[in-house]
């Protein structure tokens, strides 16, 4: 079961999301929160897999809450607003996904499943702007400086995983490609994000495309 916490200050919206998710055999809504602070407190206590969270909420906004929940649960922002400051702010805070509230029921359910598998997901309507912005992120976030190798702290295996993230592969696909368990691939992803000081898989993918990691002999790029 995928355990989900739903946080939104509008009771009707919360009820609608809960109704959609609770009718799905592999998803369980374990709690509801009416504001960001309550969402953080409940998530820290209940440890859900995913927190579906609005941005504009009382006491604590969704972006700040997402930042506090890093390492506790995967956060998916579900909001009416697709303003750039919200999209980029959420991703920098470590959110695993960004969806608009006009997302239909089937897409919402699939989004929960995708994030639960360890992948990221962004509403198609904001993807292009997000890619353009992160592609232009400063050199300190990914480029080598003064001839320094940007991936010098990564192991050979982590470089391979990063390369495949840049190809757009999911954790399951990376696991098959490299002959490892999916959980092992997810662990490698988490470690390389921490070493590179990146807050999302999306940033890692862009970085890998801009500065392809050298994976040594057997480089899949030569296959």
From TrEMBL:
One Gene Ontology term from the biological process aspect of the record: regulation of DNA-templated transcription
Keyword Transcription listed: yes
Protein biosynthesis listed as a keyword: no
Residue stretches in coiled coil: none
Residues carrying 4-aspartylphosphate: 54
Domain Response regulatory, first and last residues per copy: 3-116
InterPro entries for this protein: CheY-like_superfamily (IPR011006), NreC/VraR/RcsB-like_REC (IPR058245), Sig_transdc_resp-reg_C-effctor (IPR016032), Sig_transdc_resp-reg_receiver (IPR001789), Tscrpt_reg_LuxR_C (IPR000792), WalR-like (IPR039420)
Example GO molecular function: DNA binding
Pfam families reported for this sequence: GerE, Response_reg
Keywords per UniProt: DNA-binding, Phosphoprotein, Transcription, Transcription regulation
Domain HTH luxR-type positions: 147-212
Signal sequence range: none
Entry protein name: DNA-binding response regulator
């Amino acid at each position: 079961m995928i355990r989900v916490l739903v946080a939104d200050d509008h009771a009707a919206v919360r009820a609608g999301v809960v109704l959609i998710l609770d009718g799905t055999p592999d998803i369980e809504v374990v709690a509801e929160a009416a504001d960001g602070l309550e969402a953080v407190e409940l998530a820290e206590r209940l440890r859900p897999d995913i927190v579906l969270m609005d941005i504009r909420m009382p006491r604590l906004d969704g972006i700040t809450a997402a930042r506090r929940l890093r390492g506790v649960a995967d956060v998916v922002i579900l909001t009416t607003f697709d303003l750039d400051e919200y999209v980029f702010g959420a991703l920098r805070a470590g959110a695993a996904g960004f969806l608009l509230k006009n997302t239909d029921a089937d897409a919402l359910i699939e989004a929960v499943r995708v994030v639960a598998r360890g992948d990221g997901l962004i509403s198609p309507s904001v993807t292009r702007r997000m890619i353009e912005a992160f592609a232009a992120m400063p050199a300190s976030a990914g480029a080598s400086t003064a001839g320094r190798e940007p991936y010098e702290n990564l192991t050979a295996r982590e470089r391979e995983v990063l390369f495949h993230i840049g190809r757009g592969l999911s954790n399951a696909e990376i696991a098959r490609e490299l002959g490892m368990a999916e959980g092992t691939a997810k662990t490698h992803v988490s470690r390389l994000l921490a070493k590179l000081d990146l807050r999302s898989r999306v940033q890692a993918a862009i970085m890998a495309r801009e500065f392809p990691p050298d994976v040594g002999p057997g480089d899949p790029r030569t296959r």
